[in-house]
Amino acid sequence: MSFNTPDDVLMDAEMQMEKASEHLKRELRGIRTGRASPALVEFLKVDYYGSMTDLKSLASITVPEPAQLLIKPFDAGSIKDIIKAIETSGLGLNPQSDGKLIRLNMPPLSGDRRKQLVTHCKKLAEETKVSLRNARRDANKHADALAKAAHVPEGEIEQLRTEIQDLLKKYEGIADEHVAKKSKEIEEI
To answer: Where is 97: in which H helix or E strand?
Structure first.
């Protein structure tokens, strides 16, 4: 992809960093806390008639109690597939079905499990920061190419590099905020 102006480079870098930030938010939503949340299971992949489908497309997911999820499939024939997906998801949940509905009771998290989940959140944040730094690296390469090809003044290129670095700091801060918030939710009893 070729860029004609410093603004093009900056916009592309911000778009890449925004994607990385959104990915982190989605990943964190799927991590269990002490409370029931539909986000925990809505993106579970269910083998529905040979097609891997998000659970939220196959059922309504509600929270009747703070520690329970209620899953009501739109097609009663998909209950076994949904139960299988939940059991193999690694969430540590035991689905209970009456043939029409699936109940998921959230057992309380042990202290060790809470620590593991917080560590996992921090690992996800570090992976996001690597993606952010890669976006910065790519943007700086594009800035160098602009300096050579488009005869953009050196002052503008230096300004562009400063703005790219500021973007990186902004999105690293956002990643840290997301992880701090999720860690706090996990550690609440």
So the answer is: strand 95-97
- Domain over 6-29+110-187 is classified CATH 1.20.120.450: no
Cα Rg of the chain (Å, integer): 22
Pairwise CA distance, residues 18 & 81, whole Å: 34
Tell me if 6-29+110-187 shares its fold with 38-105.
no
SS3 142: helix
Q: How do the domains of the chain map onto residue ranges?
A: 6-29+110-187, 38-105
Which CATH architecture best describes the domain 38-105? 2-Layer Sandwich (3.30)
Q: From first to last of its 189 residues, what are the pLDDT tens digits of the chain?
A: 667 788 889 999 999 999 999 999 988 887 777 677 888 888 888 888 888 988 889 999 998 888 888 999 998 888 989 999 888 887 778 899 888 899 988 877 788 888 888 998 999 999 999 999 999 999 999 998 888 886 788 888 899 999 999 999 999 999 999 999 999 888 875
The secondary element (H helix, E strand) that includes residue 179 is helix 154-187
CA dist 89 and 183 (Å) reads 21
Residue-wise pLDDT tens digits, 106-143: 877 788 888 888 998 999 999 999 999 999 999 999 99
What SS3 class is residue 160? helix
